[in-house]
Amino acid sequence: MIIFYFTLARFFLFSHLLLCYNYKLNYINTDGIYFMSKQIIFLILLMVAFSVSFAGIYSGGNGTQANPYQIATTNNLIELSNTQSDWIAGKYFIQTANIIFDEDETKVDWDGDGDANWDTEDQKGFAPIGNSGSNFAGNYNGQNYTISNLYIKRSGNDNIALFGAILSATIQNIGLLNSNIHGHNNVGGLVGYQKGGFLTNNYSVGDLIGTNNTGGLVGYQKLGNNMGNYSLGSVSGFAYTGAFVGYLDSGLVINCYSKSSAYGNMYTGGFVGWIDSGMVNNSYSTGSVGASYWAGGFVGYLEGGSVNNCYSLGSANANIYAGGFVGYHVKGTINNSFSIGSASSILYNGGFAGSVSAGEVNNCFWDIDASGQSGSAAAQGKHTNEMKTITTFTNANWDFTTIWDIQDGTYLSSYPYLRNINYDTPGATPVVNPIPGIKILCQANVYFDTHYSSSYPLFNKTQFNDLAEAMKRVCTGTSTLHIADVGTTTFTGSIDFSDINVVLGNYDFELNGNINGGLIQTTNNGRLVMKSISPNITKTFPITDGTHDNTVTFTTASNILPDIFIKINNNTSTIGRICNDFIDISGTEDLDATITFKIEKSTIAPKVLTSVSQIRKYDNTKNRYIPLDGNHSSIIDEGSYYLITLTNVNKY
User: Fold this and answer.
1) pLDDT tens profile 585-604
2) How far is 281 from 260, CA to CA, in rounded Å?
3) β 563-568/583-586 pair status
């Protein structure tokens, strides 16, 4: 609406000046000099009005480098798309806010005529900034703001993207979210056709459909630089389809990545569909690739140029020519790169390359185990453990000082990754951009203490104040989890200690739940505490003294909800039952344990416990329960509860 009324106002200004000019021309006709001066003045005014009629107003600025035009709203962006005179070199734009189009594209006035009525023009969606007749040649700085829900449906048109066609332009710091873009040839998320210029620190997230030269970020790149950008989503086309760039004619792509999937009929790649003579350095792809012919996890068809220090994790599938990294390698070079994903086709498939004609492949590898591919037209196949060992690559002269890094130390294991890409911190959530193949290695001894805090990175320590994180670092079957001071914390639910050695030191470990598997060793004053055991529910205590493995099982009567403290002193297999009036111990082996029951008085009221004679053991010779003596049991009245302790009860 703003654009419509502003255009109408400019029309009236132009008309008014033209009438004034005609009036002066008719009125002043005797003095030639005076007449000519007036004519010149009004011609100048007309020229100013003409120029104003084709300039945008936006949310501020004048388009200079010192005072760029400000793009803050959807109307501003649509205004720019409709103002070709502002696409020229020397015009500067900055985005000053996140721009969010309605998720329902039918509610947007895409053509800027003042009415979101979903007419023929609105149904085409956003008109790209720059086209084949007039390229965008200015400077647009998104200032790390985003543009959401961009909708373009121009399936019969070429050069379709936010910026349809650019010429030596600079576009930086823009994020596109949830884009839905359809075009014919040269279709991209950010740029459809790039000739020269710089694309820096941008990203595109969305779904794209084109015919030829379709890419997640750029459809067709000729010359120019593409640096520090990434794409995410899905890309579909017929020929020259790439998850990041569809067709790389020439130019440089560096420090970029794509997590998009790519599907086409031919020349389809997880990063680039076709490379003619450009250069791709220090970049990677993770998405899956599918095509009828020439599918590669990184590049579908390499006709020339070079690919250096790159990797691919995704799978590639085709009828003919599929490679984990490159589908068909005709000319050019691939250096210091690797692939992980599988490659499948009826003819010509390989772990790294489907087929190689005259191209060079130097110091490249693929993972035999992860890919399931034992052969390749080029590169060296290595097992996963070798692919996660730095010497595999340093022996091939890879640069682990300025380009590559790897985790193959005490705490972490990974494939090589690129130093100039921002990855997630290992173990952090949510997972956004993980180091390839990252695995946090277990530790022989892990310590859990709720009072412990550390500035160590999550992956680079063995002491934790969170039980779940501590257990992630425990090696199954060989590690020991040391539980120290957990304060008054009571853990709820089931805890699986299967194949884990657990040591309790000088503190109680309280659990309102159950323990599944594992062994708990009590040392010093450490005790396992079962809180509020439900009536008639049997609880099992997997206890060890460090040498002998023991099992202690207790069941409570229906009206007693005790806390039970267990500390084992020697080899035992014990069964106990808490009854209504007595605490009865029964079994067939020696009990060399210290067992403490904490029983709330309210759970047994009005009954009271006043004597150790109310604690009984089962006498096998008499086939009945008999009271214990004070040497093996005690009752302490703690006010609101009883503390009952049993020690060294033999032949129970």
Assistant:
1) 544 344 455 666 666 677 66
2) 18
3) unpaired
